[in-house]
Amino acid sequence: MSMPSKEELEIALAEAGRMREQGDDPKFVAKALLNSNYQVEQLSHVLAAVELYFHSGMAVTEHQKLKKAVEKAKEAIDRSGGIEHESFGLR
């Protein structure tokens, strides 16, 4: 199966958004698509940070960018999954 084109994905996401807004998502397909797309966007930032890190000679600045991208991706996955962690005021 091939990936959808950019235009096809935009159309699918718009329709998924419409379905969720109108409460017309009995099998949760729209919810799953929107959630998966959100997570893929966050993980693409992680991939870009990893690639930069590998090509930078693994410098400290790029290491920090990578750590930040990984943390944001974890937060996005947790937030979209309704998972909350206690921070004990350390964040």
Beta-strand content bin:
under 5%
Rounded Rg: 17 Å
Low-confidence stretches: none
Tally of individual helices: 3
Mean pLDDT reading: 85
End-to-end gap:
42 Å
Question: Shape from CA axes?
Answer: elongated
Q: How many structurally independent domains?
A: 1
Main β-sheet: number of strands, strand sense, barrel status?
A: none
Extended strand count: 0
Order of helices and strands: HHH
The percentage helix is over 70%
What structural class do helix, strand and pairing data support?
Answer: mainly alpha
Features:
mainly alpha; 91 residues; elongated
Summarize the structure in words.
The N and C termini lie far apart (about 40 Å). The chain has helices spanning about 5-20, 30-55, 60-80. It has one domain. The model has no long low-confidence stretch (mean pLDDT about 85). Helix 1 (about 5-20) crosses helix 2 and helix 2 (about 30-55) packs antiparallel against helix 3 (about 60-80). It is about 70% helix and about 0% strand.
Annotate the secondary structure layout.
Blueprint: H1 6-21, H2 29-55, H3 60-81
Short description:
With 91 residues, the protein is mainly alpha-helical.
